[in-house]
Amino acid sequence: MKGLIQRVSHAQVVVDGEVVGAIEQGLLLLLGVEQADTEQQADKLLHKVLNYRIFADEQGKMNLSVKDIGGGLLVVSQFTLAAETKKGLRPSFSSAANPVLAEQLYQYFVTQARQQHAQVATGIFAADMKVSLCNDGPVTFMLEG
């Protein structure tokens, strides 16, 4: 399971012209699910996402997590993160989870996130989403569960 986190001052997801998820300061998480992923990996990745220290403390150092600052978490499914890109000029998605497993683990991740964090918003799984954000820094990290 892969998660691309971006520290944002705000972010939102629009589907069919309607805002379906939005946050102010916090993290935008693009979540990619691969074939061999499990709930245990989802739990591990969620722990990292919620506790990864990438927000500034009083001295301006990255010492605070999204939990520490009470920020938002916007979770967006992103199957292209599972792409194999080492060979050729076209991505292969052979390692991506099938849609049934991917949605199951995505929903599991979101449910667990909502149990552990007060501000969780989402996109819509497999929808054509328009994601907009203001990347703060920019600060972006790839995490794996």
Overview of the molecule:
The structure is a single chain. This protein is globular. The model has no long low-confidence stretch (mean pLDDT 97). Helix content is 24%, strand content 39%. It has helices at 39-51, 66-69, 99-116; strands spanning 2-15, 18-23, 26-32, 55-56, 62-64, 72-77, 120-122, 130-144. The N and C termini lie close together (5 Å). It has 145 residues and is of the alpha/beta class. Strands 1, 2, 3, 6, 7 and 8 form a 6-stranded mixed sheet that branches. Strands 4-5 form a two-stranded antiparallel sheet.
Topology record:
Layout: E1 2-15, E2 18-23, E3 26-32, H1 39-51, E4 55-56, E5 62-64, H2 66-69, E6 72-77, H3 99-116, E7 120-122, E8 130-144
Parallel strand pairs: 3-6, 6-7
Antiparallel strand pairs: 1-2, 1-3, 1-8, 4-5
The main pleated sheet reads as: 6 strands, mixed
Sheet-strand content, in percent, reads 35-45%
Element-by-element helix/strand order? EEEHEEHEHEE
Average pLDDT:
97
| Number of distinct beta strands | 8
Classify the helix fraction into a percent range: 10-25%
Low-confidence stretches: none
Helix count, DSSP H or I runs of 4 or more residues: 3
Task: Report the structural category.
Answer: alpha/beta
Distance separating the two termini: 5 Å
Rough outline: globular
Alpha-carbon Rg, integer: 15 Å
